[in-house]
Amino acid sequence: MPEVVLTILVVAVLLALVSLVLPLADRLGLPYTTLLAALGVGLGTLAIGLGNLSGLGPLGDLLAGVTQFGLSADAFLYLFLPPLLFTAGLTIDVRLLFDELAAVLLLAVIAVAVATAAVGYALASVTAVPLVVCLLLGAIIATTDPAAVISIFRDLGAPRRLTTLVAGESLFNDAAAIAIFTLLLTALTNAESFSVGTAIVIFAVDFAGGLAVGFALSYLACGLLHRLRNTPVAEISVTVSLAYLTYILGEAYLGVSGVVAVVAAALTFVVYGRPRLRAGTWEPLVQIWQQLEFWANSLIFVLAAILAARIIPEIDVADLSLLLVLVVAALAARALVLYGLLPLLWTAGLTDRMNQRYRAVILWGGLRGAVTMVLALSVSQNPIVPLTMQQFVAVLAIGFVLFTLFVNAPSLRPLLRLLRLDRLSPTEIALRDRAMALSRATVREQITKTGRDYGFEPELADRLLPEEPEDSGKAGDPEAPIGADLSPDRRLNVGLVTLANRERELYLEHLGSGTISRDMVALRVAVADRIIDRVKAAGIEGYKDSARQEIGLPRSFRVALWLHQRLGWAAPLAQRIADRFEGLLVAELAIRELIRFNRRAVWPLLGAETGETLDDLIRARLRIVQDALAAIELQFSSFAEALRSQYLARAGLRFEDAQYQRMLEESLISREVFNDLQSRLEERRIAIERQPPLDLGRGLAEMIRRVKVFEALDDAVVLHIARMLTPRLVMPGERIVKRGDHGSAMYFIASGEVEVRLGERRIKLEPGDFFGEMALLSNKPRNADVAALTYCHLLALDARDFRRLLRNDAAVRESIESIADARRQERDALDGT
Length: 833
Ligand code: CMP
Known about the structure:
This protein is mainly alpha-helical.
């Protein structure tokens, strides 16, 4: 039989077997990779055990094909790595990842370096194998497969940020490990020119270069998407091409890390490409990638396990003791990272504190997967590596993967029980009971009603109802306030989590009705998720924190503002303002709905006391959001107006689109009519998407007019002053001026209130007032603290412009100086007493 046919036969049969394994893994509660590995080892052993296969017909052909199935080292890497990494990048929550990026990158790169070094030196000290080869092995096993830990965390309802941290770490540690692996492989072939110093430099260049290449190519691909609208098949093909091209260009032509480039390309695609896709393409796109990933994963596992089956009979005690050294070193390295490095990160404020027990799960759940296997296989086929070393690396790496799959994976669930992580917290028990009680009530109603319709006796309804939870106490009665036995704090937490969950649902409902964009939904859902995490971690303070954080100006906004003020570059700022504005509008809508939901659904369940506190909290949050909205409208009034109508028009279009889709599905209109409607919609969409011009001038001019000193100035002068002033938004409680500091600017209040703190005295300043002028006039340090009482819009005037203004405008100078004089006298009088 021709070799190609045999290969296809093997792949086809393997895929069939692999598919059968999936449901079994589900039933056993094991990662499917564990069963894949078992399948591979079984097949391999069978083929070897049977010896002469020629008389067995197709089965013999198959088994022979299985054992001879060989791919070159490059084929393994180039064929399988891109789908594994690209899919991981596509499916991670990019926004949460960016929140945690510093921690993730540090953790990934340092963890890989630590693991490589620990394993390398440990093995080199007990064998005669050269250090470089031991380090190579260290790099191979430094990658982790997060699937098992993530599925456990999901089951446990662990904070989502934690899941992101684990997934992100694994994504980048793949990239880092493979970059180090490639580096060491080169070192192996020309050992003379290798030194640790140059290795670090090369690694850094590879890594950064990979990021840049991945970003650039993906950005180009995203630009291309615009031309492919309406052809999902083409859009998806672009991504497949992107993943492979990035890898090949990076690795083979540009001399940077191809893996890092693939990861960067996937993340960039999520950010820039996803919004440009035709509606409804994203889901099939991800599905196709998951399919490719599954195939790559399955083939790698089975092939590697078959190889392992061939090696297993040759394994002796010495090999086993080496494996033991490897296991201990790898665990120790991971423990060092989790218990030594991670606490440093949270002390530095780079990530949230992580519970001891979760860390134990991450430590023991650090399974190794397809990436380790691919690298091991590629070494075992690599002619550059001497034969004995090929064996050494392949045996230990595959042995280690099998160890994690057959020892760690099955013992993970018992470990959870040992750590008592399988038990629900009191808050969660209360939530669960509430849900069950509510559902029992509605189910009872339904069943009784149906029973009555069919003339059944009423007792039947009782027998058909869901079981009551064993440890629930009074949960059966839906009218009783729940958690009466919970402390008020806990009850409040239950309420807050319920509200945040409802908020999450609200955003998703928006998605269903098409009123807000998918991207905005993702953003808002992430906000709701963060609230849930924070409330679980810090209760009511956590809620308040996230409410404050929700309206904080992100760094990208500040950068855009700076670009606009210094370089006159308006586009990025307009985009940021538009995003912020839409986000706040959506938030306002949702929070209003939450107030009603609280009254209607939460209040009766948790009692008046909790209900009222919740109401206060939501209203406080609503005020914060409204203030932030008002601030934008004040500062960019005409722009905000245009945005509001753009937002409405867009929501209208989406709604219309959803209607047409429904009509098509119900066959009320034909595909041709639908396409025609779509192209009309598209034209209108393009017209709407044209951003309204960012007219900072007008908004600013209005703000300046509110300041008393500038009241009487004519338009031309106001415009001139507008160019000197920098708008600044400050938060309640923020200290703007600190007593004793050197003064570099003065501030006019366009909106909000501030407080001047002169010793015990407090002086409130209002819109139209100014402060911070005295230090500039007298060239002395600031003589008081000034802090914001509410959200404030300030107009800052820096010292140089201040002097210019006073020089050019006598009237302004006089009014500023006279007010400063009065203040000085007041101060002196105060000092005298
Ligand atoms: P400066 O000294 O630059 O910084 C602190 C500011 O507080 C000061 O400028 C004034 O703008 C303001 N300030 C000081 N004293 C008074 C006062 N008596 N009434 C109002 N504002 C004051």
